[in-house]
Amino acid sequence: MKHFTLEIDKDGIALITFDSPNVTMNLLSTEALQEISEWTDEIASNAAITGAVITGQPNAFCAGADLSGLGAIFSEVEKLDRNERAAFLYKELFQINEIFRKLETCGKPVAAAINGLALGGGFEITLACHYRIASNDNPKLKLGLPEAMVGVLPGGGGTQRMPRLIGAMNAFDLMLQGKMINVEKAHTLGLLHDTCPAAELIEKAKAWVKANPEAKQPWDQDKYRIPGGGPYHPAGYQTFGAASPMLRKNTYGNYPAQRYILASVYEGLQVDIDAGLRIECRYFTKLMMRPESRNMIRSIFLSKQSLDKGEARPAGQSKGTIDKIAVIGAGFMGAGVAYVSAMSGIDVAIIDVDQAAADKGKEFTATEVAKRVGWGKMTQEKADSILNRITATTDYGVMGDVDLVVEAVFESRELKAKITKMAEEVLPKTAIFGSNTSTLPITGLAEASQRPENFIGIHFFSPVHKMMLVELIVGEKTSDYAISRALDFVTRIKKTPIVVSDTRGFYANRCVMRYIEQGMGLLSEGVKPALIENAARMAGMPVGPLSLQDEVAIDLGYKILKQTEEDLGADAIKGPTAPIIRSMIENHDRKGRKNSKGFYDYQPDGSKRLWPGLSEFAPKSGLAEPQVSPAYIKDRLLVAMALEAARCMEEGIVQDPREADVGSILGWGFAPYTGGVLSYIDTMGAAVFVARADELAAETGSAYLVPELLRDMAKNGETFYGRFGTAKAA
Amino acid sequence: MTEAYIYDAIRTPRGKKKKGSLNEITALALASQQLQAIRDRNELDTSLVDDVIMGCVTPIGEEGANIARTAVIEAGYAETTAGYQINRFCASGLEAVNVAAAKVMCGEADMAIGGGVESMSRVPMGSDGGAMGVDPSISFDHMIVPQGIGADMIATIYGFSRDDVDAYAVESQKRSAQSWKEGRFAKSVVPVKDQLGLMILDHDEHMRPGTDMQSLGGLNSAFKGLSDFVGFENVAIQKYPEVEAINFVHTGGNSSGIVDGAAAVLVGSKEAGIRTGLKPRARIRAMASIGSEPTIMLTGPVAVTEKVLKKAGMSIEDIDLFELNEAFASVVLRHMQAFNIDHAKMNVCGGAIAMGHPLGATGAMVLGTVLDELERTGKSTALVTLCVGGGMGTATIIERV
Asked: What is the number of CB-based contacts under 8 A between chain A and chain B?
């Protein structure tokens, strides 16, 4: 065996250790699964073996299924005739259930000694053991079934064994949200029988095996009852009655993995475990035949993981570390950057024009760490050490030894130029100057720099501590070295970087603009505001376009409008947005959430309701009659954004579909179930997408003009991943 | 086709759920006392009754295993009288009468009884389970929410305020009290008796005649709490995305009361009447059931009214009196709005907000009520309808002969 070792002790107890070669984390690959089958047979048939203990290499039990391996199955499936696919997939996917079921019915006691991360399939194998004990001195040890987070369902019996152990209500809580829990919580819930220090783990597990030669799973015993009851038990009925609406409220029916988990548990708890496993596998098969899983695995898991490792690093550049930075401008953005940097162990100087402003920037970190201490998530010492990493000052002199600067001042070319000059007087020559601008082209800003090759855009999203994406904007003169150093910084603060070229709005904001613009367009066409907002959320967007405009502030849009008017003339301003923005500011003083008046009225209790005055923006003839369908609004919004992303690809603003997809999900919450903005097009097929865009262009105009790239792809039957994909894209 | 006539219609008084008088009376006793009463007051040879159809919405426990046949046996009917229980949720009682009439019309039966029974204090509503609320392939995929959410959604979409629904409820209480005072129910209410033959209840005990806007205004929403907890509002909005937020106007005070009760309606052909020496009181002119959008669930009465009028070849103006079960005030308000019906013609004797809604029996009860009222006022035609769970509507048009 390659992935497991098996040693039999003097009591006849087999110690099976999961220890795949050349990996830091064991994964449940097809090969590993086959070996599990082999040693299970060995346990069952070898009379010298009295029972078994399963454990893993130190600190890493098993992180779950090898998701890239699922990609291989997909490719196999695609070779098959459509009507043979289900049967083939079901057979493939059911193997894990056969093997795990064989393990729990092998006739000898099997204990899991969980000494490290046990997630997904890695946790499911322990659920198929008769006894689970985990080490309680490893705070990083997490347990759970997080499959739903990447669009998959626990297909190794998890949907059957977990609710049979801890009841449907607790199992839903863990599985539907993909929660990963610590050892203490798992013990309290009843997922673990016991906990102990890692050093005693094997010994205790073996003692249990020795003492329980007749071990049987609870669900294989006659007196077994489902904790909390099945769906038609009075208590269970309440749980299942609440589960559907709760899930639909949160997912709008866009996430089949969760929907199928619900159904697997509902149907599975009404039959015995063997039938339950078959039911689970049918839903797993059904899920795998839909595009959501593949798209979500690719973007949210595989591509994000690659980007998080800094895979966008230019050739010839090597990984380095960023240990000290300066943040200039201690406003909300600057304070956020200082906080996430200090949290990641970077020393930070936060600089502003007066000491009070700088102190206020540092105060943000003090507040955030205090919250964590309050929740018991951080010790006071740790909080103090993080806060001590931040120096609040007005003195540019502190930048003499920093690796990188993040400039986060007001969006003014003159101010930024002045700061660039002042900083470069003290900065080491190797230091990178990063501007956190969201609107101004980097090439222009770099003109103020003596070292434009070290000048780069580092575009954080607000709020910095919650938004996971950072756009690195490459100006005309930005060097590969600067990109590499900026990647060092972004990966160190555990955010996901994408590298994009310099253009107005860069990548994310350019696409988001189209979203807001279409929201305004629909409003001006007489679509009810509530319908626009609801349909947007139903399409998978985190907030509606009107709500988003309120969040980014209407007066900001107004300022940009005025600036554009000044720069390019009034004729340059087209589309439905300008008259609405103008009226909101000039006639109604409605700036958005910041003054509690925007497209919504914001109540002191935190609730909000659409402003009735929005009827002003409907056509003179009144609201559209009949109103358009949510499906139509979905197309209007998603197609507009996807077209903009396609234009960005055409223009080379973004070059890797993975960056476009991951950027769209993390940057502006583009319907995650699609796998991102380009996967959305790929899944639909370029030809279908182009046809739809053409229809919308004919109906509503230039926002839906199709770039040549897409027409070309449609003609050739290409996908973005096919045409631009890297070798590593699944 | 044979014509079907109504020969008699009776009901029990309705007992309230909490500490109600009928809580200690079995559902079977409620049903069989009605069958005995309809036999005795008509001196009916029960061997001439071919079938007994009873609506019952929670057919488990003592209401399970075909309570209609059970009651037929217990009531001492002829062995040849068959019986079966049906469930069209809140319209079950009316549907049972429609089925009895249909059997007469097609010649399967010469005489049949349609009615219903529900002891909501003894067999709690919803205790029969059912996939609709828990199986994700229906509840999740088809956005099924509780009826009350649908009632509040109707109020939201069709613009009924809390004051509108409360004002309707006050009027229901007023009309119900007035009707009792004038003895309008005397003809059809058969008091419920105990084992010893002593009277247990002879009036509807759920009524609160003193109800006014102020007392109703103090009540909390009946459905907002549950909705906030589970997310039903959001689910319903996914079906009605033009709605920003539901206006939760319904309370215990402007929704139907939870009560115990039973009813029976004797239906037969003209010849069956001659044979038994009974005089027909009304002709069943048309009947219909329909499915409607299941999330809002309670808009069926509008659709089924159109359908049944068309079947009868009548228009809304041809109907003298309307009876629409007061499941929730907004359902009735919407109906009057849709057809521009004068409140003076709608639920003239009050309704379920005041007197209660024993689910399986109500349809047969209100049919009897409106027949009594036609006779009392010398009017001719009435349309009876109810909103139904799962998104349905059932209706019957009767005409005095």
From this structure: 84
